[in-house]
Amino acid sequence: MAPNRRQPWDLTDDDVSAAIARISKHDEELAREAQHVYDTLTWGEGPGQLRRAGVQDWLWYRVPTKYMTDEAGYMGRLADTAAVLFDELGLDGYAEVCRDERTAAVHAAFDRSDAEGLEAMRKARDASGIEPPDLDDFVWGQTMGMEEATAHATVEDALETALDSGDLVVGGRAWRARQRAITAAALDGRHPIEPGQSWRTAVVTERIGDWVRNGSMRSDRVGRRRADIANRLLHPIDPPPNLTEHMAPATRLLDLLGDHQPLTQAGYLNRAFVVRVHEQRPWEDPLRTRRTPRSETDEIVLHRLRGWLECAGALRKRGKVLRRTERGTAMTNDPLLAWATLIHSVAPEGWDRFVIDDAAEILIERGGAPVATGDLFDEIATDAADLGWRTTDGGAQRAPSVDDVRRAFHNSWALLDLFGFASEHGDWRDRAVSVPPAGESTLLAMLRAGAAGPKSRPW
Questions:
Q1: CATH class assigned to 346-452
Q2: 295-307 per-position pLDDT tens digit
Q3: Do domains 243-343 and 346-452 have the same CATH topology?
Q4: Is there a contact between 433 and 423 (Cβ–Cβ < 8 Å)?
Q5: What residue ranges do the domains of the chain occupy?
Q6: pLDDT above 70: percentage of residues in the chain
Q7: Mean pLDDT, all residues of the chain
Q8: What is the mean pLDDT of residues 221-249?
């Protein structure tokens, strides 16, 4: 990609007026359209607002989707107009984007359908090098608050500078790793306004603040509870001690599975492997039977763990074979990674995740002391109704019931119990749950994953 002869921040309003005037000498209509392009890209804020990311967004998204016209070829015409304007301003890199074959390909895809156009746009953004990538410890939200949007723009500018200087070469050796390193450095750079904050910490603070406010808007109780917890979520949560021992059920099962295991016609683990697990039993099972199991479903903990590991991406079913993925292989010898995976995938996103997170909020508020399951489920059901959760029953919508809560709670809590991060007491007539010392940090980390994580919607 060609570098700019001049930089946007070096240009003045007079430079822009002179460029438009030069275009007008040859084509007045082209000059009027060039003025429109400039005004659209800068929003009246001057040439310093011009950025490669903004040009790409305009070319690949706003031109195809925001212009209400049936004129054939209008997208290419606007791109050509912008290229002429950027030539006159000395912004050669931006002019090259306008004339790039990727831009023509995006426009052609939008001519075929919006779905094809949006897919082409995503590929073009990714291949440009300007789109800030997700990091192992930071994922951009589909919906961004002001701090996150500004942080995103700051990273885009850092990537543009790296491209212009040759520090980042798209398609070059290990360029993706270099792109991530530049992104991390920009995110961890000093915030220009908030003392002691980086862009990363400012985004986390904003997300957690939104989490508290969104709860408060619908439920005073939920908002108050979240506000009491919020400060504990601002920084990464340290894992509990003895993590190797806690995560052994998962890491040892992954080790026993090896690279792959054949499955039965019904899709269950083969009996020989199930018997081997039954004999070695790398976990405590209060429901263990002496009888040799006939199938995977006879080993309840094995069946539950296998289901979770598949959902977490550690295992993948391919035909009649269950394969251990790269993530699963890494988890085998890394209990910290296994714990982090549990934090993010203890329950499926949506209703099940809400239930276990709400339970975590309630139990942390009460200091981990035993809470009767009946009281806990009643409180979660009330919170769900206040926060707008609905389910369909017989074609009619209703608020979730205590039974809905119980079903969602059971599997996730059983996993936490298996790893020693939760406890259950009493019999079916008088059941209670509590949080042992190792469980508090795990529940806090679960809450932080949601509160400080990426947002897919504004509420």
A1: mainly alpha
A2: 999 898 999 999 9
A3: yes
A4: yes
A5: 8-127, 243-343, 346-452
A6: 98
A7: 94
A8: 96
In this structure, which topology does domain 243-343 adopt according to CATH?
Answer: Arc Repressor Mutant, subunit A (1.10.10)
pLDDT (0 to 100) of residue 377: 96
Residue type at 302? L
Extract the tokens encoding 199. 């862009």
What is the rounded distance in angstroms from the CA atom of residue 158 to the CA atom of residue 168? 10
Q: In this predicted model, what pLDDT tens digit does every residue of 366-408 receive, in sequence order?
A: 998 999 999 999 999 999 999 999 988 878 899 999 999 999 9
pTM of this prediction?
Answer: 0.89
Output the pLDDT for position 291. Answer: 81
The predicted structure's pLDDT at residue 289: 65
Alpha carbons 419 and 248: distance in angstroms, whole number: 8
Rounded CA-CA distance 370/294 in Å is 37
**106 backbone φψ class: left, alpha, beta (φ>0; ψ -120 to 50):** alpha
Nearest to 11 by CA among 43, 51, 40, 59: 51
Q: Which residue has the tokens 């052609």?
A: 108
Summarize pLDDT for 36-94 with one digit per residue, the tens. Answer: 999 999 998 999 999 999 999 999 999 999 998 889 999 999 999 999 999 999 999 99
